Amino acid sequence: MDTHARPPQRLGRRLYEEMRARIADGTYGAGTALPSTRALAAERGLSRATVALVYEQLAADGFIHTRPGAASRVAMGAAAPKPAQRASQTAARRTHTGGVSALGARVAAMGLVDAEPSAPRDIHFAYGPLAGSDFPTQAWLRALRAVERQRSPRLEYEDPRGNLALRTALQAHLSQTRGLACAVEQIMIVHGSQQALDLCARMLLDPGDRVLIENPGYRMAHHTFEAYGAKLVCADVDAQGLNTGPLARMARVQLAYVTPTHQFPLGGFLPIARRRALLAWAAGQGAWVLEDDYDSEYRYSVRPEATLQSLDSCGCVIHVGTFSKTLSPQLRLGYMVLPPSLAEPFAAAKRLADRHVATGVQRALALLLENGSYARHLRRMRRAQQARQQALVAALGQHLGDQVEVQGAASGLHMVVWFRALSADLEPALVQAARERGVRVHPIGPFYHPARKPVPRPAGLVMGYAALEPQAMAAGVRRLALAVRDVQGLPKPRRQNPASF
Ligand SMILES: Cc1ncc(COP(=O)(O)O)c(C=O)c1O
């Protein structure tokens, strides 16, 4: 803008700012005639020369037009739209997409909310949290201090795939513990598995693409794919995990999301024949397979099975793991092992998303992996979690006996508990009755895809135990058994589901 006019001096400065603000907020709309310099000078007690200077400056800045012998007028486009006009523009956009993009509208409609915090005295069989006392605080602090001591003189952005020392240490760890064969270049450090799912959805799916999911399954994954416009194709799950028999009838699938090592939430462990069948089917249709290896560190009475990544001969498996189950979900640390063809495109996507995971945290974790602290911590965690798993199974046996059937307890950090005598539609009543007795439990119902015809089944709970001590678990199950009695005493709901499965 041309600003050749002399700036108004002190007395005129305030008038200039005020008029500019009124023009900008639309009080003086486009084309409005301004008072003459004489009239305004008299009104404000200023000299006419000062007001003339203010008008000159407003004209030079493009806010008004002045013509000798005619009233000065507000220039077109100088004023912001009037509030009514703004409201109608916003309303027009709202009727279109709710003011956000189509993706934004889909996400908003999902109604995702954080879990309600537990009351301090509640015994909460939550799936997700770990016990704070299990965190390796001393080793972590030592590693962070060592990282700080080695701070480099230049604080630069890092490789979006992650810190090289961490990826190298992880490569060795994954080869040893999961039999993965991959180059360091295929590994990318991400903000938890959730970011890996999000990146897969962004990079591999177009709206309308079909994604095969396990039903019941991990709803956070389903929501992510649906947010990007994917159509979910539900595949049934049995005690061994994904039922691969019907896959032959499922065509034009772009991506299959599976939890083969500990099916979430039922806990099945996919046998090798099904693993091979899944990979052959995926190769046949050019589908990607997302292998979510979220809690494979915890195996109590099952043998390790070859990962899909290590069986993959056509480069279609994306293997995803997390430190949320071994260190803390609050660290937001996970990793992807990508097929070679996807390594570069995903690095670019990660750069666009958030550049990279915090360097200090990555380097601290690299130190824990390198100096053996992480392996020691894992051994400790396995013992602690197995003790909790046994305590929960024992408490269920003692207080609920034959009334329940436990599924998927052989590995992981949760189990599914079926209540033989309660129908599925009593789940909300059971959760409420337990709550009234100071126990928080989670029904299995929401893990089934809502659009899929309900399968006949009894009431079930997904019971997490990783943040509870054995005594608390025993007390919690005792109260849960009372809650079951409360529900059995209730009048039966009108629509009954036979409790068979
Ligand atoms: C099936 C499944 N995958 C992944 C995760 C871990 O997610 P994140 O690494 O984002 O914490 C969970 C956590 O509960 C899960 O249940």
Notes on the protein architecture:
With 501 residues, this protein is an alpha/beta fold. The protein has 3 domains: 10-74, Arc Repressor Mutant, subunit A (Orthogonal Bundle), CATH 1.10.10; 123-128 and 377-488, Alpha-Beta Complex (Aspartate Aminotransferase, domain 1), CATH 3.90.1150.10; 136-371, Aspartate Aminotransferase, domain 2, CATH 3.40.640.10. Helices cover 42% and strands 15% of the residues. Strand 5 (210-215), helix 9 and strand 6 (231-238) form a beta-alpha-beta unit. Helix 8 (192-204) runs parallel beside helix 9. The longest helix is centred in the C-terminal third of the chain and has 28 residues, at 373-400. The N and C termini lie far apart (76 Å). Residues 495-501 have low confidence and may be disordered.
Which helices and strands appear, and what pairs or packs with what?
Blueprint: H1 10-24, H2 37-44, H3 48-60, E1 64-67, E2 70-74, H4 83-97, H5 102-109, E3 123-124, H6 137-149, H7 164-178, E4 187-190, H8 192-204, E5 210-215, H9 219-227, E6 231-238, E7 241-242, E8 253-258, H10 272-285, E9 288-292, H11 308-311, E10 317-322, E11 334-337, H12 340-354, H13 359-370, H14 373-400, E12 404-407, E13 414-423, H15 427-436, E14 439-440, E15 442-443, E16 458-464, H16 470-488
Parallel strand pairs: 3-14, 5-6, 5-8, 8-9, 9-10
Antiparallel strand pairs: 1-2, 4-11, 6-7, 10-11, 12-13, 13-16, 15-16
Bound molecules: pyridoxal-5'-phosphate.
